[in-house]
Design brief:
Helix content: 25-40%
Order of helices and strands: HHHEEEEEEEEEEEE
Shape: elongated
Largest sheet: 7 strands, antiparallel
């Protein structure tokens, strides 16, 4: 007797069994679903054995609590949206203000460089500031020598290593500081500039500094 494979041929594909237990539909219930289930239960109960009054009261109380929770959730969302809109309105007051943020950006605008600061975690026996141009090339290196721990002002005169005025545009800087033992000193770098724009499209307010640097509200350290 021929087998199924030999009768149908070796190249005939066999049907794969379907998964009849696969879940369909939504896996969550809302207030309307609960009310539908409750009304269906009342319609199909045995008239000779009506629902116990205590059980009905418990289900009504459960529905009431769920309704109150849903309303509270809706009100909280409205309150958060209102608070967010108020915060966005307050941020509009930053337009045109000079701020200091986390980061290592510098800008040359009309031949003048931003003044910013950095923080050394411990005293440095030697320290050097390197300033890089838009393409990543070294524009200027400044030997800062010995520096105490704490905040230090970075005031770049805008000149490159050849003594020429650097072109306007975005720059970055790096601080290399060493202890007397030659260990690297931790540096907190900061950036300064004028707020030139705000963006709310992503749901989180983004601040534009000097027309190019993008900062989050949480990056702001101080407003000058």
């Amino acid at each position: 007797m021929a087998t199924i494979d030999s009768a149908l041929g070796p190249n005939v594909p066999m049907a794969e069994p379907s998964n009849s237990n696969e879940a369909v539909g939504d896996d969550s219930l809302d207030r309307q679903d609960f009310m539908t289930l409750f009304m269906t239960q009342l319609q199909h109960q045995d008239p000779m054995k009506p629902m116990d009054s205590h059980e009905m009261a418990a289900q009504l109380a459960q529905f009431s609590n769920m309704e109150a929770t849903m309303k509270m959730s809706d009100n909280m969302e409205k309150l958060l949206d209102y608070q967010k809109s108020q915060n966005n309105l307050q941020l509009l007051g930053l337009i045109g203000e000079n701020i200091e943020t986390e980061g290592n950006e510098l800008s040359m605008v009309d031949g003048a460089a931003d003044k910013t600061s950095y923080v050394l975690e411990e005293p440095a026996a030697s320290s050097v500031v390197y300033i890089y141009g838009p393409g990543g090339q070294l524009a200027r290196s400044m030997d800062m020598g010995y520096q105490e721990a704490g905040e230090h002002t970075l005031a770049w005169d805008g000149q490159d290593n050849n003594g020429e005025l650097a072109p306007d545009g975005p720059y970055t800087y790096k601080v290399e500081a060493l202890t007397p033992e030659g260990q690297e000193v931790g540096v907190e770098r900061r950036a300064s500039g004028k707020v030139t724009g705000l963006d709310f499209n992503t749901g989180q307010a983004t601040i534009t500094v000097n027309d190019h640097a993008q900062k989050g509200v949480g990056d702001i350290i101080r407003v000058h």
